[in-house]
Amino acid sequence: MIRSKIAGIGHYVPEKVITNHDLERLMETSDEWIQERTGIQERRFGNRAEETTTTMGARAAEKAIEHADIDKNDIDFIVFATLSPDYFFPGCGVLVQRELDIASTEIGALDVRNQCSGFVYGLSVADQFIRSGMYKNILLIGAEMHSMGLDMTTRGRDVSVIFGDGAAAVILQPTEDSDQGVLSTHLHADGRHAEELAFISPGSHGGRYGEKEKYGFPDNEFESVFITRKMIDDGLIYPNMNGKYVFKYAVQKFPAAVMEALTTNGYKPSDLDLLIPHQANLRISQFVQRTLRLEDHQVFNNIQKYGNTTAASIPLALSEAVDSGKVKRGDLICLAAFGSGFTWGSALLKW
Ligand code: COA
């Protein structure tokens, strides 16, 4: 039976470290508040003159390609997960193909728009392509340049202190080894909560959800706009989050997603060598750990250093766990995600 394995992994984070104390100079917040509520101590912000989501993704991809010991021209498909693309369109998939100088291969490039669950969704898609025999070397990237779209004033503090920039990538290949690879993936969504964690404008909604005046959309139906002066003036061009609401669902859906992955494959929480939860908030990860009665050594967190890097967070944590020697061949690893949409899911794999 063919399944996919992670043959190479790598990550890239920008050099610039932004501490909680740095944020204190921009908005009314405190290191104490941020650490107590989220566990975050610092995050990275990309260098605007040189870096984008695509370039960071490309740097991570180069490391994954080297780790997998393949030639970049062997890649036969690209999946790119992000909520902060360089352009509205085309997506980062084609841009990273060009950045890696493999565009002349004309391989397909797919963008995944599932926010914090983007990596798990992308992994599931890539896994199906490998299992079907269609592709043999898939490059899967999760990358975010959040710092380009955050309200860095007191008005946006509940969101902006949480997010950071970064990228990570994996190379997926087929394996027939029954003791290695992706055992299963599980994807879920509930669109009834779409606006509870969302980046609504600019967008093509045109006020159709009864909020025409709030966003300043013109009455003339042929006057087409994604962005209005009112959106800019009223600060409506930033992500918004109903923090308590998100927290409540996250602490239910994360454990459920992990249990679905384990029970499908005949395992229980104590069998896990490592749980890598999406790094949404350290308090959420700790809640999930307690719910599943996992030991400290069974859960990996690095949100303290990077904040929430959304689509990059799971592969960034996995890559650091691998680099630190925490992951051994044959280890049972669960990746679990929850975020905007709401979307959530999990993947169970043997390293
Ligand atoms: N610094 C200081 N004070 C802040 C602040 C900040 N960065 N952000 C908000 N506050 C204030 C609020 O204005 C509020 O003040 P008030 O009591 O005077 O009105 C107070 O702190 C409490 O705010 P509240 O939103 O109730 O805090 P909370 O305990 O819910 O924590 C989050 C806020 C965002 C940390 C928390 O809701 C959370 O983690 N939610 C999940 C978010 C998440 O994981 N998102 C990603 C999912 S993928």
Spell out the key features of this protein.
351 residues, alpha/beta, Peroxisomal Thiolase, Chain A, domain 1, binds coenzyme A
Describe this structure in a few short sentences:
With 351 residues, this protein is α/β, with parallel strands linked by helices. It has helices spanning 20-24, 31-38, 53-68, 92-99, 118-131, 157-160, 212-215, 229-233, 243-264, 282-291, 303-306, 313-323, and strands at residues 3-12, 17-19, 42-44, 77-81, 108-112, 138-144, 166-175, 181-189, 197-198, 240-241, 274-277, 332-339, 343-350.
Task: Describe this protein's structure.
This protein is an alpha/beta fold and 351 residues long. The chain folds into two domains: 3-175, Thiolase/Chalcone synthase (Peroxisomal Thiolase, Chain A, domain 1); 181-194 and 241-350, Thiolase/Chalcone synthase (Peroxisomal Thiolase, Chain A, domain 1, 3-Layer(aba) Sandwich), CATH 3.40.47.10. Helices cover 32% and strands 22% of the residues. It has helices at residues 20-24, 31-38, 53-68, 92-99, 118-131, 157-160, 212-215, 229-233, 243-264, 282-291, 303-306, 313-323; strands at 3-12, 17-19, 42-44, 77-81, 108-112, 138-144, 166-175, 181-189, 197-198, 240-241, 274-277, 332-339, 343-350. The strands form four sheets. A five-stranded mixed sheet has the order 1-7-6-4-5, sandwiched between helices. It has a four-stranded mixed sheet with strand order 8-13-12-11, sandwiched between helices. Strands 2-3 form a two-stranded antiparallel sheet. The chain is globular and about 60 Å long. It starts with a strand and ends with a strand. It binds coenzyme A. Coenzyme A binds at residues 29, 33-34, 37-38, 116, 157-158, 161, 241, 243-244, 246-247, 250, 280-281, 284, 308, 339. Residues 29, 33-34, 37-38, 116, 157-158, 161, 241, 243-244, 246-247, 250, 280-281, 284, 308, 339 line the site of coenzyme A (COA).
